[in-house]
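Section 3.1: Structural characterization of target chains.
Under the original work plan, the team committed to producing a structural model for every single-chain target entering the pipeline before any wet-lab resources were allocated. The record below documents one such target. The sequence was received from the expression subgroup and is listed exactly as submitted; it comprises 254 residues.
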Amino acid sequence: MNLETKVSGRVVRKVCIKRPPELSSTPFLSIIIPALNEEENIARTLASIRNTPDAEIIVVDGNSADRTVDVARSYGVKALTANPGRAGQMNAGAAAAKGRALLFLHADTLLPDAFDEIIRRIIAQPGVSAGAFRLKIDAPSRGLRFIEWAANLRSKYLKMPYGDQAIFLRADLFNDLGGYAKVPIMEDVELIRRLRLRGRIAISNAPVFTSARRWEKLGLTRTTLINYGMIIAYHLGVSTTRLAQWYYGHRRQL
């Protein structure tokens, strides 16, 4: 936009430089949701976050057999398709993201109130490389309260949150790390391991609420034993390929 004014009787034209639209529209946060056959769960999650200011939502579908993509698009969010595999789907979402910060959210997980302000505050702290939320499981059960307690204890003292706790970090750091490793399982643990070398992992006192369906489907004891067995095997050096074969093969047998 050009403006004209008079200086000492002469007309002087002032040039006002307008910021390019791609810069002025850059959101603070990109919420990336990997999904596979989540038609029954993802609507609730999208409804809870679709009005978040200064944020974009990207659903990355892994070739679902149901209406996951249609449901996502009905909420007006960006819906992409990628080969199935959570690490690859999240990397595809991050590649399409415009936000200065990235939040990786499971399709069956609800974020706390004012989560965007919590993320702003945490990643602005000196020395912090990433953050996550405390875990709450959305079902009444004493056994699940123990699972929450153990997960939050691990997160607080070992600084090892898992993907169902909604990991977030700066986009430039994520890109500098090369994103999620191309592994078939344990991608969240592997990313946090590298992030711990870059700074502190901060855990918000505010909880996310994740579905209890894993525990309800397989049973509390069996699910817990499988999860801890996977973690122990991973830290003992068992390959993620072998872990994935065991984990998914075991689930198909149940």
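Residues 1-24 have pLDDT under 50 and may be disordered.
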